[in-house]
Amino acid sequence: MSSASTEDDDVPADTTGGPSLPRPIRFISPATLNLHRVYEQNRQRLQKKDGSKVPDPTTPQTKGKPRLLLMGQRRSGKSSISSVVFHKLPPSETLFLESTARIQKDSLNSFMEFQVWDFPGQIDIFDNPNFTFDMDAIFGEIGALIWVIDAQDDYLEAVARLNSTILHLYRSYPHINIEVFIHKVDGLSDDYRLDIQRDVTIRIQDELSDQGVENAPVNFHLTSIYNHSIFEAFSKVIQKLIPRLGQLEAMLTNLCRTCRFEKAYLFDVNTKIYIATDNTPEDMASYEICSDYVDVIIDFTEVYGSWPRSQQWRERLEGEPWSQPLEEQVACEWAESGMVLADARRPIMLREVDRFLALVAIMKEGSYDKMPQINMNVDVVVKGLTEFFEITKPKEVVGPAQGLASP
Amino acid sequence: MGASPAAGSAAGDSGGPAAALAQLKKVKKQKVLLMGKSGSGKSSMRSIIFSNYLARDTRRLGATIDIDLSHVKFLGNLTLNLWDCGGQEAFMENYLSQQRAHVFSNVGVLIYVFDIESRDVERDLATYVNIISALVQYSREAKVFVLIHKMDLIQPMTREDVFDHRAALVRRKTAEAVAIMHKQKPEQLQAQSQLQPPQVAPSTAGGDLSINLQLFATSIWDQSLYKAWASIIHDLVPNLSVIEAQLASLGLAIDADEILLFERTSFLVVSKWTSREGERNPYGDRFERMSNILKSWKHTCSKYTGTPRNAEQFSDFEYKMGATFSMFATKFTTNTYILVCMPPGEARFNSAKLNVAAARPWFRFLDGPVVPAQSAAGGGMSSSQVLGSTPSGYSGEASVGAPEN
Ligand SMILES: Nc1nc2c(ncn2[C@@H]2O[C@H](COP(=O)(O)OP(=O)(O)OP(=O)(O)O)[C@@H](O)[C@H]2O)c(=O)[nH]1
Ligand SMILES: Nc1nc2c(ncn2[C@@H]2O[C@H](COP(=O)(O)OP(=O)(O)OP(=O)(O)O)[C@@H](O)[C@H]2O)c(=O)[nH]1
Ligand SMILES: [Mg+2]
Ligand SMILES: [Mg+2]
Fold first, then answer.
1. According to the UniProt entry, which residue ranges have a biased composition of type Acidic residues (chain A) (predicted)?
2. What one-character DSSP code corresponds to residue A75?
3. Confidence (pTM)
4. B141 at A interface, C-beta within 8 A
5. By CB distance 3.0 to 4.6 Å, which of A107, A212, B53, B59 could disulfide with B47?
6. Ligand nearest B150 Cα, by number?
């Protein structure tokens, strides 16, 4: 689970110094509490083994973190997007957000550390009479530039500004992914959405090729904060920044095959961004239900799992007739959950991978009976995943090594 | 229309000597008035609670013409007769004049909705006072729930103050209305209600001593709506003490920390039991929060499976959070879901699941709208003999009779 913090140091530009964005109350998934201990243990263990490999969570460095820049016209929805996706602000409350006066930098500690910079729409960084921006400081470590266009408004000026931005960047920073969010598409008909997307695409490509720029890495997404589309779009953007993504996908594909899963996702629990899925075709409906399932689990965890139980409670439960520490009474130290849908008895399962990630899968009909075996296979894949992210479980609980149990 | 809730013995009685048991199973009807200015959100909340609308779907609702009557079967032997009264002025005047007796007699509950964004507060309150007067005149015993609604439109920081201020105003107006009625028509009031000796009109504040008034801040955009409606429903559900006693013994038997019983369609919490440890839970709003979570989950499922919203969407759920806690939810009786939260541990979990399945027969009376005594031949009601006494042997699948399937 990620934790976000706002950094105000080394801001390359602070032009107005006006009121800063009121920060929404931040939601920290309580599962973090459980997992933090494990993570710390593991970190210290790693430190003994190999000091250089250790992630140090206490000193956030700006260097080496991919950066997502949110740019676009005033009121196009940049701050709303960042608040909804990274701070769990309910979409309806974005109505109360104030216009952004200075660059708002969030640092996210998740499975991978990255930064999100929310720009004020009123400032043009390339053409500002008062201030010269340090372009390298802004674009040097960029992961992606997200350009937000308000689809419910006249977007010609936004497109023109985007074009000039692309032209500015293309020469000095040709590898920056440019992700165009055609935003606020809620309330627009499907046909109209596609019309807008086509129109925007053509306007950008024409302008770029007029300027002699071909094949600029520009991608388009239709988004809205009122549904899952914004999370799905972010998922796509972030997946491009994950090294060795193919390897992750192969693991999930393999899992689906051995366990007869219809679809499996690896979620960043806190943002509900999925960072990998298996190789079956994309399917918005499965993403939605899996993502909502993560929500359900987070809520239940907060309500029932985030406060300490009393000592008497523990003593009673560990006394006769159990006579075992609670930790030994459970089969799995990580969160695991399953639900059977009424229609076709098509179960959904969730398994926590580490303190940031969870595996969520939709199973095929009738596979609920095979749960014990499925759990075994899932365990193996989870182990592979934790190794992938170099966060392995504490040594004492790692079971004997096993291959994917064959059916 | 439904019989007087005060009398407690409504229609649907098949006659004959009613055993204590039959008493429990009697069909009970409750007349619930939903009133307030046009556009205040009455039909919206009704649709969300009872017809599984999403909040955003309510934008499509048109103004209600006259009175929209619906009968909501709730936990089998309670039927809510919901009178959604269109709030346009002409209709309101009509309720207060021509239809006065028809609308205001035999009312169990009045739910009055104020739109917090309304520009003309004075006028809204004047109408409210008239409605309260009519209610006191015809249904002295009715409970009144005032919902200060659309709170989402108020800046979060000031919500509490705005609500407190408005609530104080409503309380004062209510007291005034009641006081006036007492002065004007003491004889009539007396005739209406033998139980309540006519009181001297309270001259100052605290007037809600003489009328059962509860206020809630609500919005269709968050869980506050479930909190308000769960309180409304809670008071109406028959046999509540029996249900609660049964839940308590189940909870103790399976070592649970909390048990919630949800009504199947609305997902309102109709009953709950909490252990001493569970009482330490700092989340005081967890019951309405659970309703909200599960209801929106139901929507997700319905969208995914393509089945109708009111259809059953999931049957079994379990969640084990390592050595912290475990929980499971399952379809319980025809009209209820049960959610059990308990300490961690595989063995404990498995035996709790078995015991909950085994306890189903104790709760089946929740769903039986018929009097069972005579229909004994048909079987299926075998659970009835245990009613009233605390079940003694929750022990695995043994002795309790086959779990319903
Ligand atoms: N309908 C709809 N409205 C949205 C959406 N996203 C944001 N909005 C609204 O757009 C308005 C402006 O949002 P902001 O996030 O403050 O815009 P911004 O781009 O940060 O603006 P500046 O800070 O001035 O550059 C708010 O009222 C949001 O509620 C969306 O997906 N759909
Ligand atoms: N912002 C906000 N809007 C709400 C809320 N509840 C209802 N509304 C909106 O208010 C409008 C009117 O709601 P209705 O439920 O039709 O109002 P009504 O009280 O039934 O009106 P009449 O039938 O004319 O008496 C709808 O567009 C709803 O979406 C709320 O809590 N917050
Ligand atoms: Mg902004
Ligand atoms: Mg209406």
1. 1-12
2. T
3. 0.78
4. no
5. B53
6. 2
